[in-house]
Design a protein that fits this description.
Largest sheet of chain B: 5 strands, antiparallel
Number of domains of chain A: 2
Helix content of chain B: 40-55%
Radius of gyration of chain B: 51 Å
Oligomer: heterotrimer
Radius of gyration of chain A: 21 Å
Shape of chain B: rod-shaped
Structural class of chain B: alpha+beta
Strand content of chain A: 15-25%
Distance between the termini of chain A: 59 Å
Number of helices of chain A: 16
Chains: A alpha/beta, B alpha+beta, C alpha/beta
Order of helices and strands of chain B: HEEHEEEEEHHHEHEEHEEHHEE
Helix content of chain A: 40-55%
Shape of chain A: globular
CATH architecture of the largest domain in chain A: 3-Layer(aba) Sandwich
Number of strands of chain A: 13
Distance between the termini of chain B: 31 Å
Strand content of chain B: 15-25%
Largest sheet of chain A: 13 strands, mixed
CATH superfamily of the largest domain in chain A: Periplasmic binding protein-like II
CATH topology of the largest domain in chain A: D-Maltodextrin-Binding Protein, domain 2
Chain lengths: 342, 461, 221
């Protein structure tokens, strides 16, 4: 009898706990909390903690529960499971756009949100708080003698001309595994034809595929990779030593700029609190902390204007196209054909 | 006699009100028109973009051996994002089966020609969306497969634009209304100006002015002016008939009376019989009485009529008094009465109705002559007393008895001691009314040592 | 005096003519304006008594025409209208004076005298009796060059007496003619005026004789 009830309890617990996969979870308690802010994010805790600490200095009555998951899981949590979080932060712009477009985001407006440039928000539901270039990282040692490619054409030519040097030593995102990777690949393909040629070339060189920027960076520093393509610039700057062997290249033909976005889901337990944290992120103080403490580039219109090669990914319904399963299937099929089975 | 008229309704107010109402209605009409036009325009524009996006996707469809190949163009959706931040939904149906997209997006109810977008508005989930549908027939193998491509957008962007335009329309409407209000005020005033002008012109006329109104009037006023002129003509006719009547009556009544009196005087000369003489005396006295009364009644009637609408002019009171004294000299002389006048050298100018004042002076001096015993002196003086001209008439007669001035001037009131003297009692009433009409005063007192002192004063200019 | 009476009413015209004749005046009577013009054409008058309403026209028009033609015979208008405005109008047209019907003949006489005095022509009316020169217009008695002024009733009394010297006038008659019919007259009123007149006649041959119980008469010597 007891076993039966235990089994029943376990089943119940399984059903009531979140079905989406959580990578990290951490509490930021305070002495006398009057409210709890629940944040679901794709950004790791280490990066985000200083921001939470700063927020709690402003709001000592708020304790924070910070959950990290992959972008797909984050999407699923809200879209499929209606999980109750007060703020959802993700680098997967397309999945965030789908959430907002399909009515899962709540509206929020404030002086801070109104201070954003037009390309950094969608409706009053989706807000970008960081703009990150998507870069290429290379090992100087591996390039010994060769010029660092400045454009994708350069890279294609380089790879084609020196297969021996780069075989098995090129890395990039696996778009099947990583939502960010899928986004970068699809946006890349949108921008120019060179993507497919690059994919084909890479495919012929036994590329290594990864699920996260961090892994690619580690591989490069370890010496496993000579080149890693489509890496999150902020991670690269954070992890790679300044005078080290590795170098960050922003390709001059175009460098995709990712917008990290936040939204307040309809299922939020305390949307006002979520809005408060969002406003904090977008405030002057918040932006400074994002840059200095989190190491992420805050939204900066002038910076974009200054660097002509930076191309921010547009926050518009176009992002929905590659979320479409048929389109996704088509793209991945082509990608597989190019990379895996050349 | 004042008529109790109902409170006047203002044409001006009514005109302005009606114009304002019309302006308000037009302004609202303008507003709603703008709204409607804006809505149509925006919808048409949005529809064309939506249609273009849908058509672009539809055109990408390819038929292959396996089925229909679908490739949704990124630019199709991105294009939709460029015109507004509306949410986007889509649905692709191949042979009545939803292949991708939002399954509950409503299909069109009417059939559409191939590759031409049709548009319809539906409720979808929790909001209203505008859907464009494009139908294509794709050849798969040997069969023709019907493919429907639906792309929808929420309408917030459109609503926002329409609202902006509507606000502008409202501002325009309000501005228009304000201008119209101003114009209607101006129009009302201008339109009614001829009315005020003519009313003013007629109002400024003197009391005797019975000329027809000849000012230029707008055609709407012509009936009124014609009626008024008709009325004036009738009044003039009535007045002249009355005057003629009075003249005729006076003539036909007084002429025989004159005959009677003349005959009585003749008879008196011809008889010595005391009784006959007494009879004839009585006759003559009766005739004098009747004549005097008639004169005073007519005089009084004239005074009452004229004091309402005086024909004011400026003249020297001294000159007028001199004239009246000269005219009554013979009458006084008959009783050996001396009219001793004391008039100033310089002019004492007053403003008033000359004929009324002459009538008053005539009555006063005539009174003095009548009531004074023969062989006496009547003092008539005119002096300046502060702001007034004062005429003082003194006689050595029998005084005014015990009655006060107020009583004496009552109509037909005669003093207690003058029953034997012929008179109707209207004389002083006339003088008092003239005095009042000109803002002057009349005062009667007994003199010490006998006689009456009458003071008649008029304000100086 | 020589009057031209212009009056269309027969009874009144007759009465006035007769009454004036009783005082010794000569009266020509015209019943309409045409005859009035005819009369004026052939004779000259001391005064015109003019009625307003005549069968062949308005007396005022006649008066205006009379004046325009530079005829300056004095005119007294007999009018039935008594309003001040009417009187003023008459004077403006050229009347010398007016009198309202029915009128007191004594007043008419007084006004005629006043008009004539204003106009001059005193010479024609002067009369002489005994050694007295009597001028009714200037109301004076001149005895031996000494001119004495007469007051109104004294004048009228003398006029009555001198019109028929030697004739006895009764007190009653004299009262009628000297006093207005509206006045109360005392018994000795006539005596008073006779006395005054006697004083003015001192130094002349003329005498006013009292005929006891009968009346008074004027005698020479």
């Amino acid at each position: 009898m007891r076993a039966f009830f235990t089994a029943l309890a376990l089943i119940c617990v399984t059903f009531t706990t979140a079905a989406f996969e959580i990578e990290e979870e951490r509490d930021f308690p305070v002495d006398s909390p009057r409210a709890e802010l629940r944040i679901l994010s794709t950004t790791d805790t280490v990066t985000f903690a200083p921001l939470i600490d700063a927020f709690q200095r402003l709001r000592p009555d708020v304790s924070v529960h910070y959950t990290v998951a992959s972008s797909q899981e984050v999407f699923q949590a809200i879209y499929g499971e209606n999980a109750a979080f007060d703020l959802v932060i993700s680098s997967a712009m397309d999945l965030q756009m789908k959430l907002a477009n399909d009515g899962f985001a709540a509206s929020h407006s404030s002086p801070e949100t109104q201070s954003l440039p037009q390309w950094a928000y969608w409706r009053d539901q989706l807000y970008a708080f960081a703009q990150e270039p998507v870069v290429m990282i290379a090992s100087r040692l591996a390039f010994d003698g060769l010029d660092l490619p400045q454009t994708r054409q350069d890279l294609v030519r380089l790879l084609r001309d020196h297969p021996d040097r780069f075989t098995g030593r090129i890395g990039t995102y696996d778009p099947q595994l990583s939502g960010a990777g899928y986004l970068f690949a699809t946006q890349d393909a949108r921008q120019s034809d060179t993507f497919w040629r690059l994919a084909e070339v890479m495919g012929s060189l036994s590329p290594k595929l990864y699920g996260a920027s961090g892994d690619m960076i580690d591989a490069l520093t370890k010496g496993d990779l000579a080149v890693a393509y489509n890496v999150l610039g902020s991670y690269a700057r954070a992890r790679l030593p300044l005078d080290g062997d590795s170098v960050i290249v922003e390709l001059k033909d175009f460098t995709l700029t990712l917008l990290r976005t936040a939204l307040i889901p309809q299922t939020a337990g305390d949307p006002v609190l979520g809005g408060a944290f969002l406003d904090f992120l977008l405030s002057e103080n918040g932006r400074r902390l994002i840059r200095d403490e989190a190491g992420l580039p805050p939204i900066d219109e002038q910076a974009l204007a200054a660097e002509q090669h930076l191309r921010p990914i547009r926050l518009d319904p176009g992002l929905l196209v590659y979320v479409d399963p048929i389109k996704r299937k088509r793209f991945l099929a082509e990608w597989n054909a190019a990379i895996i089975h050349p | 006699m004042r008529l109790a008229l109902p409170p006047p309704r203002s044409i001006r107010r009514r005109l302005i009100l009606q114009l304002l109402v019309v302006a308000a209605l037009l302004a609202m009409l303008l507003y709603f028109s703008i709204r409607s036009v804006a809505r149509d325009a925006v919808e048409t524009t949005q529809d064309s973009v939506l249609g273009a996006a849908t058509t672009a996707i539809a055109e990408q469809l390819r038929g292959s051996v396996d089925g229909v190949e679908i490739d949704i163009l990124y630019s199709a959706f991105s294009m939709l994002g460029s015109i507004s931040e509306d949410r986007v939904f889509y649905r692709i149906i191949v042979a009545d089966q939803t292949v991708t997209g939002y399954e509950d997006l409503p299909v069109p109810t009417e059939t559409a020609p191939l590759l031409t977008p049709i548009y319809y508005t539906r409720n979808f989930r929790d909001t209203q969306v505008r859907i464009a549908a494009v139908i294509r027939a794709i050849l798969v193998g040997r069969t023709s497969v019907r493919v429907q491509v639906l792309v929808a957008q929420t309408r917030q962007g459109q609503e926002a634009i329409v609202a902006t335009m509507a606000n502008r329309g409202a501002a325009l409407g309000l501005g228009f209304f304000a201008v119209a209000a101003l114009l209607s005020l101006l129009t009302a005033n201008t339109a009614l100006r001829p009315l005020n002008y003519i009313a003013g012109a007629v109002g400024r006329r003197g009391p005797q002015d019975l000329r027809p109104v000849t000012q230029e009037a707008p055609s709407e006023m012509v009936p009124l002016i014609t009626s008024l002129n008709g009325f004036i003509a009738r009044l003039r006719g009535a007045l002249s008939r009355t005057e003629t009547f009075i003249t005729e009556a006076a003539h036909h009544i007084r002429t025989p009376l004159a005959t009677v009196r003349a005959q009585a005087e003749i008879a008196l000369r011809q008889t010595e019989d005391a009784d006959t003489r007494q009879t004839l005396h009585r006759m003559i006295r009766a005739i004098e009485d009747s004549s005097r009364s008639a004169s005073q009644l007519l005089d009084h009637a004239t005074v009452v009529y004229r004091t309402d609408q005086r024909a004011n002019e400026r003249f020297d009171l001294g000159d007028l008094l001199r004239g009246v004294v000269r005219s009554l000299d013979p009458t006084a002389d008959l009783k050996d009465l001396i009219l001793a006048t004391s008039l100033p050298d310089d002019a004492l100018t007053i403003e008033g109705d000359r004929l009324l004042i002459e009538s008053a002076l005539r009555n006063l001096i005539d009174n003095a002559i009548k009531y004074s015993p023969a062989d006496n002196r009547i003092g008539i003086s005119l002096i300046r007393a502060n702001e007034s001209a004062m005429i003082t008439i003194t006689d050595d007669g029998r005084g005014i008895g015990s009655l006060a001035t107020g009583d004496l001037v009552g109509r037909f009131k005669r003093g207690g001691n003058v029953a034997d003297v012929v008179g109707s009692g209207l004389g002083l009433t006339i003088v008092d009314e003239v005095a009042t009409a000109h803002g002057g005063t009349l005062d009667l007192q007994n003199r010490e040592g006998g006689g009456t002192c009458v003071r008649f004063s008029l304000p100086l200019l | 005096m020589r009057f031209l009476l212009v009056e269309d009413n027969v009874d009144l015209g007759q009465s006035v003519q007769k009454r004036l004749a009783m005082d010794g005046h000569a009266v020509d009577w015209a019943q309409d304006l045409h005859s009035a013009q005819d009369h004026l054409g052939v004779a000259s008058y001391d005064l015109i008594l003019l009625d307003i309403m005549l069968p062949d026209g308005d007396g005022r028009d006649f008066l205006a025409g009379h004046r325009r033609a530079q005829r300056d015979t004095p005119v007294i208008v007999m009018t039935a209208r008594s309003a001040v405005s009417d009187r003023v109008a008459l004077l403006d047209i050229g009347a010398d004076d007016y009198i309202t019907k029915p009128f007191d003949f004594a007043e008419l006489e007084a006004r005629c005298r006043a008009v004539l005095r204003r106009r001059g022509g005193a010479a024609q009316t002067r009369q002489a009796f005994a050694d007295v020169i009597f001028d009714p217009l200037s109301a004076t008695l001149t005895i031996d060059g000494d001119t004495r002024e007469l007051r109104n009733r004294e004048l009228r009394l003398f006029e009555i007496l001198v019109a028929a010297p030697g004739r006895i006038h009764s007190k009653a008659q004299l009262c009628d003619r000297l006093f207005s019919f509206a006045e109360t007259v005392t018994d000795n009123a006539i005596e008073v005026y006779v006395g005054r007149l006697r004083k003015k006649l001192v130094g002349s041959r003329a005498r006013i004789e009292t005929v006891r119980g009968v009346g008074y008469r004027l005698t020479d010597g």
